[in-house]
Amino acid sequence: MIALFLAAAPSRGWIVAEIGQRVLRERLSQGLTRGQLGKLVGVSGSYIGLLETGERRFNEDLLVKLGSTLGISLAALVDDKADDLWTQGFQAGEAALRRRIETALAFNESNQDGGES
Fold first, then answer.
1. Distance between CA atoms of 93 and 13, rounded to whole angstroms?
2. Are 91 and 64 contained in the same domain?
3. Range of the domain at 75
4. How many whole angstroms separate alpha carbon 74 and alpha carbon 63?
5. 30 and 69 co-located in one domain
6. Which own/partner pairs from 42-48 qualify as long-range (CB within 8 Å, at least 24 positions apart)?
7. What is the dihedral of CA 65, 68, 69, 71, to 10 degrees?
8. Chain CA centroid to CA 54, Å
9. CA torsion sign, 42 to 47 to 51 to 52?
């Protein structure tokens, strides 16, 4: 799926650079060197540097390893708004579910009241 997204993008160069910047930001926030992250995902530290600067493209397997190692979703690696959208969607779904439960409970109460009269 990620590969399709990368292949379908109008200008892949900016996407690769954006993903690289997200990897850099996450790596630094966790206090990892390029060499440490590279060792964890099975590539050299210099390759991590090339990825972070957008000079090398990511493949799907490496994205999975980076996301897993850095503890962030693939969606967040590809799109920095993805986690916000996921949270908003979850909150909207939770609110809709809460309304359905309240409606079902109200319906149940009205039927119980009607049956006792």
1. 35
2. no
3. 1-79
4. 7
5. yes
6. 48/23
7. 150
8. 20
9. positive
Token pair recorded at residue 100: 């359905």
Predicted pLDDT at 117: 45
Successive 10-residue mean pLDDT values, the chain, 117 residues: 44 70 93 97 96 86 91 77 56 66 69 57
Whole-model pTM?
Answer: 0.59
CATH number of the domain residue 46 falls in: 1.10.260.40
Whether residue 19 is found in the same domain as residue 60:
yes
User: 9 and 61: one domain?
Assistant: yes
Residues 25 and 65 in one domain: yes
Can you give the pLDDT at residue 19?
86
H-type alpha helices, 1-117: 2-8, 12-29, 34-41, 45-52, 60-70, 74-78, 82-116
